[in-house]
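Aim 2 progress update. The chain analyzed this quarter is reproduced below.
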Amino acid sequence: MNNNLDFQFGMYEPATDSIFFNTGKNSILVIYCKECNSSVIFDDPNDIVYLYRLAEEAPLLYAKLALKENGLQDYVDAMDGLN
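Predicted C-alpha cells:
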C-alpha cells in the first residue's frame, strides 16, 4: 500500500471500530481497527487501551501507523516503555 497518502480528514466510528479517512483524492478509505489491533503483541492485555485511545483521539495518526510496517506495534512498545 502507498505510505505517501495525503490524509485530509479522519474520523473514528466506534459502532464499527473503524477509521474513515479522506486521502485528498476524492476517495474515502476505511481501516478496521480490530483487524489491525489483532497483529499487535501486548505484554499486558490491558495495553490494547493505547490503541483504542489513539484511534479515538488521533485517528489520522492511527491510520498512518496502521499502514506502516510495525507502526502500531512500535507505538504500543513505546507507550509501554513510558509507563
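The chain has four helices and three strands. The helical segments are 33-37, 48-57, 59-67, 71-82. These observations will guide the mutagenesis experiments scheduled for the next reporting period.
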